Amino acid sequence: MRITLKISLLTTAWMLLTLIIINIIVFILFMKTTVDMEKDTTIQKADDIVKYFQAETDYTPEQINSKLKALLTEHSYIRILQADNQVLYEVTNEKPLAEKIKGKYVDTQESERRGISLAKKEKQVLIVRVPLKEGLNVKGSLEIGKELIGLESRKDILLWILGVSSLLAVILSLLSGRWLANIIMRPITNMIQTMEDIERSGIPKKIIIHSETRDELQTLANTFNLMIDRLEENFEKQSQFVSDASHELKTPLTVIKSYANLLRRHGLKDQEMADEAIQAIHTEATRIQKMTETFLDVASLEKEVELEMNLVNLVSLCQSILKQLKHVYKRDIILHFEESPILILADELKIKQVIIILLDNAIKYSNKNIDVFLKKMEGNAIVCVEDHGIGIPQEEIENIFERFYRVDKARSRETGGSGLGLHIANRIVKLHKGEITLKSKEGEGTKVILHLPAGLELL
Ligand SMILES: Nc1ncnc2c1ncn2[C@@H]1O[C@H](COP(=O)(O)OP(=O)(O)OP(=O)(O)O)[C@@H](O)[C@H]1O
Ligand SMILES: [Mg+2]
């Protein structure tokens, strides 16, 4: 069943139930107040009669009869009974009614509503009985019986009004339910259509928001659009990565291919040329190997990465890195620290990778000595790698963490970089909930500062 139909049926059913309850209450209250009003006027009349008889004691039967007759209203009877239920006086203008209802002596006031059948019709009758104790030569009770003539017709009118108004309300409720359901469903239908389009074409597409409703449905549509934005961004990033990566691989592959061609054409006849070709092929192949390793690194860091968190002493970690690098690069790298150990909770291999990336840059883009500072600051550990090299132009600094971004592409080719180092470092530091900042002045040098949360409270 469609949700619009469901909503309109449910609202109508609810409305109908409410109407039925309200109608029953209205009907009961109406009947009760109408009968109560009749009862009050009849009791008032009975009291008047009682007072009349109490005023004097020696009325003749004719006087009594004519008094009762004078007070008689339509379709009613008035009678006076004595203690043994014997009727002393009775006046009526509805004989069948008086015959149907047997007189009853009472010594306290009472009233009743009774349904009787008169002339093959069901009639409602009100009977009021009051004691007649003094003032009359006979002690007895007064009984007034009265057909509730207006009640039936008023009841019919009320039922008719309630019926018609309920029917109207149900029709209105059905229509408004449909209208309401359509209002609610329009954005949802819109969303379903967009999702079906996406599913069919495979192309992310946003939901068109026609008006600002600021409700949950708009929030849903906005969230969906944000999600599509993210997907598009990721989609774009991914294809950009693939094309950048292929572009990066193209140059070394072209070099390899041309040297391989050279070798194919001339074979090993020219020993010098062959040596050069083999050397070049080896260098470029090594470069490709390094590059693919870096690509894999980037790709794996794009996903949710499980870090292997352990207590790491930054001082000893840096010392061991510097020892390794010194052998390879033969450069002066000086480690400065005031206290040891400087402990953080981190993935040691990943932090090591970050420090190597920073040192690798410092080595590549400077000739003088390099300083590494380690310190503790407000629950953070700070690692600062400072070089006195070529520096980075101010306007380039904001792009430096982007994938494949290199300030001087030609020079970077010489240095063999692929522009992924800082991107990887930034991603790893972010995974550690840390921060990486870079200060640089062209021609003077660069300072890269890592803020790593100690995270010791997690232990
Ligand atoms: N210490 C530095 N001094 C001067 N320029 C730097 C320094 N560090 C980074 N850069 C500039 O930022 C660019 C991006 O650095 P990044 O480490 O991401 O890539 P790369 O060094 O070129 O290549 P890779 O690190 O992937 O081998 C570099 O190409 C370089 O232009
Ligand atoms: Mg680098």
From TrEMBL:
Compartment annotation: Cell membrane
PROSITE patterns: HAMP, HIS_KIN
EC class name: transferase
GO cellular-component term (any): plasma membrane
Molecular function terms, GO-annotated: ATP binding; phosphorelay sensor kinase activity
Cleavable signal peptide: none
Membrane topology value: Multi-pass membrane protein
Keywords: ATP-binding, Cell membrane, Kinase, Membrane, Nucleotide-binding, Phosphoprotein, Transferase, Transmembrane, Transmembrane helix, Two-component regulatory system
Top-level taxon of the source organism: Bacteria
Enzyme Commission number(s) from the entry: 2.7.13.3
Annotated ranges, domain Histidine kinase: 244-456
Pfam families, sorted: ArlS_N, HAMP, HATPase_c, HisKA
Transmembrane segments: 7-30, 157-181
HAMP domain segment(s): 182-236
Reaction(s) catalysed (UniProt annotation): ATP + protein L-histidine = ADP + protein N-phospho-L-histidine
Identification of the protein by name: Signal transduction histidine-protein kinase ArlS
Species name: Mesobacillus subterraneus
